[in-house]
Each structure stands twice: as structure tokens, then as C-alpha cells.
Amino acid sequence: MEVWDFNLRHLRAVAKIAELGTMNAAAQAVNLTQPAITQALGRIEAMLGIALFERRHDGMAQTPTAEIFVPRVEAALAHIASPHVTMSRFRALLALADTGSYSGAGHETGLSLPSLHRAVNDLALSLRKPLVERRGKIVLLTETGMQMARGFRLARVELEAGLAELEALKGHETRRIAIGAMPLSRARVLPSAITGFLRRRPQVRVSIVEGSRAELVEPLRNGAIDMMIGARRDPLLEPDLVQHSLFRDRLVVIARKGHPLDGKAADARALAGYPWVIASEGAPLRVLWEAMFTRAKLPLPMVPVESGSVMTIRQLLMDSDLLTLVSPDQVSVEIEAGWLVKIANLPDDLDRAIALTTRASWRPTAVQAEFVAELTRAAGETHQAGS
To answer: Which of 26, 177, 198, 342 could covalently link to 17 via disulfide, CB atoms 3.0 to 4.6 Å apart?
Structure first.
């Protein structure tokens, strides 16, 4: 079963039955007759293969299944945020946003181009706001269209999560967990959490999306990934996201084996005498690097290369006298091989917090919550091993 098999009006009816407790009250709330709402509920239950309500003389009582599924439906409807949205309009706008063209949307959905045009145009007319604009042969979403598409993506995530939870009740967990991973998390913590988790849940598929925070934050907001792991940021700057601290990372200065500072007691003044490769301005790592020199009242060293790629940094270090600042976990293999060496430790109070970031509205499934617990365990073990 797919999300697109549902009728949004029927889902609204199910949510109202749960909220109001009787078929009559729900029918009035969604402007359906009692036979129509009874039929709508019957279709939803037949599709799911599970009863959502028990029919009693005093009304409708939610089953344990409904207690799982209905909150997902309510969250999806809240993201959709308009009674004018039908499933065909929902699907058309989302496909258009994802592919960037009507032809691409048609290829993705299998719907005809006239059907897609009509669905998007009808939605715009009902909202009295333009959702798309043409620039030659290119179709772009307006600001309203982009906001609506984001809500639709999150609604789809909620409905997919609801279906996955119902499958889990039947003993068929099919959930995929999508994780945004910044460089540090890929070094040790995340692999440890995934292997531990898959020993218990081998049927779950884990998708890792690699990138910087700038590359991952929008996919997180759009529901393309479930969570993101990396350096903690100021929570006031991103009120729609929630950060859960995992551990504190102690940073070290790294250089090639045989660097002029190799084997010497290098203080901030000595470190300031060499060029660096470091993350771009504004990144938490860059802020800590700058603090190391400003507190010593030294001018910042030259930074001929800005990069957050450990692979790129490693090669640059091995072929030059550049220095960098990283977590030891990120270059542990190179240090063990004798290619790179630790030059100095960053002061203890200049460590950085590593956090798990999720949407504020995120409601994890049981499987996702289990993975988060495994991640917390792996992070704790990493912290203890490094302390």
C-alpha cells in the first residue's frame, strides 16, 4: 500500500471520528452524510486490513491500531493545513516540486500532463494564491508553493510512518531510516550505532546521506532525512529544529609525519607560524580555531585552503606543511599508519558538542526511537573511550 491510495477526505473523516467519538458528529464536521462517512471508514479499514474503531452503543472507541495510526493522520493533516487539498493535488504539487517540471512529474507519478496541470491549477485557484511561475520552459514554485510543498513532504513522511507502524504490528517491519551524517559522525559513532542496531533489526534499511550541515539541514526540514548528526549549533537560530547532545569532542592539531613541529611542544605562537586548512568561516570548528589564537592575542594564521572534507585535508597535509584541526577519530587510520601525527591538543574548554538534530515536530516510530537509543549508547562509549 502507498500513501497515494488514500483519500484525504476519508482520512479527515477518520480523524474526526476519533476526535468526536460518534459517526453523527464526525459526519457533520466533514460535511458528509452518515452513510458516506460509514462507507469512508469501511474503505480505510479494508485498505489497512485492521479495524480502527469498536462500534459501541455510546459511540466509537478507538482500537490500539487507531491509537497508533490516527495521530499520524492528524499530524499529516496539520502539515497539509488546508481543506482544499485532495490527494491528486497533493501528489501533483509534490511531484512537480521534486522533479522541477511537469514532464518529470508525469514520469514520476504516471499521471498525464493535463491531469497534473489541472490538479496544480485547481489547488492554486482554491487557495487564491499562485503556486508556480513559468520562466521560459522552466517551472518554478513560488514562495507559497515551496512552503506548501514542504508541508506536503512532511505529511507524506507522517503517513508513511503510520503505515510502517501498522506493518510492524503485523510482524512486517519495513521501515527505512534516513540519517544525515556530517564528517565526524561517520568516523566512529554512526557505524557503531548502525551495526549494533542491525543485529537486532536486520530487516530495517538504513540510508546515510553525507554532507555538510548546510547541505543537510533543508533535507531534514523537508522530511527527506529523519535525523542529522554533527556539531551542535545555537538553538535560537533554528527554532524549528531540536538538538539532543550526544558527547563532547576534543580536537587536536594534525600535520604530516616529519612536519617541522613534529615531536615539539607546540604552543599557539608556534602553531600561528604555519598555514592552515580549516573549515569555512562561521562553522563551529572555525570558531574554535579562531578562539585558540585570539585568546593568546595572536593574529590568525594564513588559511590558503578552506575545506571540511577530511579526505581532501588528509592529502593536503601529506604533501605540505599545512596544519589542521580535527577530531582524532577522523584521522585515526592515518595516524596509526604513520602518515599523520598529532602536533598539539586544543585546550579542554575549546571542545565541541556533537548532537543529534531532528525536526521539532518529529514523532519517531518505535524503530526510529530504538535506533536513537542505540546511537546514544554508541556515543557514550565513544566519549568514555576518548576520556
So the answer is: 26
Cα separation of 22 and 41, whole Å?
Answer: 12
Look at residues 165, 229, 182, 157 and name the one whose alpha carbon lies nearest to residue 374.
229
Confidence check: pLDDT of 382 > 70? no
Residue 109 within a domain? yes
Residues comprising the chain, all counted: 387
What is the C-alpha to C-alpha distance for residues 75 and 185, in angstroms, rounded to an integer?
30
| Cα 231 to Cα 212: distance, rounded to the nearest angstrom | 10
Asked if 241 and 315 count as a contact pair (C-beta separation under 8 A), the reply is no
Q: What CATH number corresponds to the domain at position 45?
A: 1.10.10.10
How confident is the model over 26-46, as a mean pLDDT? 91
The CA distances from residue 325 to 70, 239, 330, 340, in Å, are: 49, 29, 10, 12
Cell of 150: 514542504
59-62 and 53-56: which strand pairing? antiparallel
Domain CATH code at residue 366 = 3.40.190.10
pLDDT of residue 173: 63
For residues 258 and 319, state if they share a domain: yes
pTM of the full structure: 0.75
pLDDT digits (tens, 9 = 90+) for 256-278: 999 999 999 899 999 999 999 99
